[in-house]
Each structure stands twice: as C-alpha cells, then as structure tokens.
Amino acid sequence: MPTFYIVATPIGNLGDVSKRALRILSEVDLILCEDTRVTKKLLDHYQIKTPTLSYHQHSQLKKVEYILDLLKQNKNLVLVSDAGTPGVSDPGNKLISAIITSPGLVVKIVPVPGPSAATAAASISGFPMDKFIFLGFPPTKRKRKKFFEEIRQLADSKYPVIFYESPYRILKTLKELISFINEREIVVCRELTKKFETVYRGEIEEVIKEIEKDKIKGEFVVIVEGKN
Fold first, then answer.
1. Which of 26, 34, 79, 154 has the fewest Cβ atoms nearer than 10 Å?
2. 173, 139 Cβ separation under 8 angstroms
3. Is pLDDT at 228 greater than 70 in this prediction?
4. What is the CATH number of domain 118-224?
C-alpha cells in the first residue's frame, strides 16, 4: 500500500523542521511542492536529493491524475507547502479528497505535524486561546465586507479570531477592520521565526502607526481579541 505524507515545513527558520520530516523527505519517491524553488532551499540545506514536482491551487486536473497514477504504482509521496502545515490555507485538502474518492485506490495518508504560523502567533498573543476561530486569508476583492462582519460577530461572541494577510494588503485590511471593530486589542505578527520577526500589540490604530514606521515585508498573522 502506498503512503501519502502531509509534512509540515518551517515557516521561516530552517532549524524548526523535525527529524522525522527530514527522514521522510529523504526516503519517499517524490515531493509535491507549492513552489519547487522554495522547497529546494530546504532540501539543499539538508542535502536531500529527492525529486520534486509542483502542485498548487492552479494545478490542472491532468496533474492530479498524474499524482493518482503514481500512487497506483505504489509510489510513496510527500505533500509540502511553501511554509507551515499543508491543508491550512492551501489546496492540500483538495488533493487528499481526490485520493480518498479515487475508485479502487487505497492509500495510507499520514500527517507529519510541525510548524504553523497560526498556532505560533496564538502562543504569544497573551489572549485566552483555549478556543479561537481561524479564517485564513481575507478575500482580495469580493466578499471583503462579509469577511470583516464575520470577524466582528465572532469577536463579539468572545472568541479570538486569527487570519493571515500579505504585506501588500496588511495596511488596507487593518484600516478596513477599524470600521467593524474599534477599541479592541489586536496582535499582529510579522516574519515569525525569521531574523526580523516583529510582534505589534495594541488597538488597531496604534498597530497601523507602528507598521507604517517599518519596512513592510513578509507574511502577517493577525489576532483579534475576543470579548471577555
């Protein structure tokens, strides 16, 4: 029976990868990557020579069929994202669903846990995080108002809300968020585990001013405090 591994990789610091993940990456027949150039940096750092193949949200049906065919040939495969845990804000679960529902195909699907930007940010937020809501990335165009209204409703019901944002939209997003949630504490994490890791804390307007002072780069994690 072939094995399909879901392997978490570092969100920045290459030292955060587990020994188990490295062993599996070196033993499988093929690594499916969100971006092969990004994964190559990790593989080269640990001198892993396993072949790679791109698989991402724009991959066509032919690519999925090719992956299914490899599994039918009893090939052991790994799925990784550019950073963190596959299946969280990326198309990994669509591929897993295709594997599960493929007629006559029996595959052992194994998670190899590790880094996640959402849980890393939650651990240093200082907010009660025994329960929280994760919403992924905000829509870039349509349904943005609905997204922010959902954050307001969830935060008003006492649950902290975590979402991701890119450096290109972080200020726009925070300024839009003010219209829905004001005078509420937030935590914004930038470049987690990397050299220029920064954590901003305070009310939204205060955090915006602090971010505007810095060079805006890297991915962001935003946590909105729940109503205590």
1. 26
2. no
3. no
4. 3.30.950.10
